[in-house]
Structure of Iron ABC transporter permease:
Amino acid sequence: MKEKTYQGYLWQKVLFLLILLTILIITIVFGINAGSMKLGFWPVVKGILGKGPDALKTVIWEIRLPRVAGAVLAGIGLGLAGNVQQVLLKNPLASPFTLGISQAAAFGAAFAIIVLGAGSYQAGADAKINYVNRYLVSLTAFSFALLTSLLVLWLGKMKKLAPEAIALAGVAIGSLWASGTTLLQYFADELKLAAVVFWSFGDLGRLGLEEVRLLVIGISLAFIYFYLNRWNYNTLITGEEGARSLGVDPDKIRFWGMLVSSGIAAVITSFCGIIGFIGLLAPHMVRRVIGHDQRFLLPGAALLGGVLLLLADTFARTVISPVILPVGAVTSFLGAPLFLYLLLRGK
């Protein structure tokens, strides 16, 4: 009888993940189809499979798929990072955005573009940021994100701050980095200023196949690391004493988990700019359905993160077409009221 109950428990969660995966696939096809040139559902499927006219394959593989793939990958990464940080800090408000990690990565990227000369802005109809050295931008963003993560860990451990106080400290740290970015912009020349401002909006249009490949590698490795530690995260939820009694070192798990999650947030921010609320919303929404078990919450938060960011980007591309809104503004505009609704409904 007990075995049947447990099997039912497992199947409910697996079924939910399969539903999320199906929604993600449908959303990908919908996102590729959306645009000035309507392709239709089955032509999109054929184009993805490499069939159909050359023009169709060109539109799908060279124009729309990199952006859609980038949205899905960035959403997956932010969903993973937010979930892991909420578990490690025992704080439901933790996410790369609320802890100031995204703002720190943004400052690092701005520092690389303005001070180190790693990027410039190309004006005109094909306006975009040209990276002289994208690895330098990512490395600098990662360094500042890591510094902020260590600061948050230190405040929580040494000063024994409550979860709410850690979230407030994250807001203050994020404000500090945002002020630093503003100061850098004040002293930048016009082209570099345009590059940073354009980049800080949060935009997926600058992603190419090379950035997508880097995101695939980084997020895949991070997911493998997180999933290998799923049982450690489950024991941390029960408390530090319980985790230590089971042979888990909370400090070590927390340090490496924050390091990897900060790395994901830094790479995504350095490629896409600041995108808020995905890392906060996705774990909350999934947790309400399938609970805290990290075996299912990790892939669930990742899948829903991909769905949410892709829907937001598709909305940004089509709502007042041909003008494309910055996706970072859309996620903040839609994410804030949705998060408030979830909080109020939870009470």
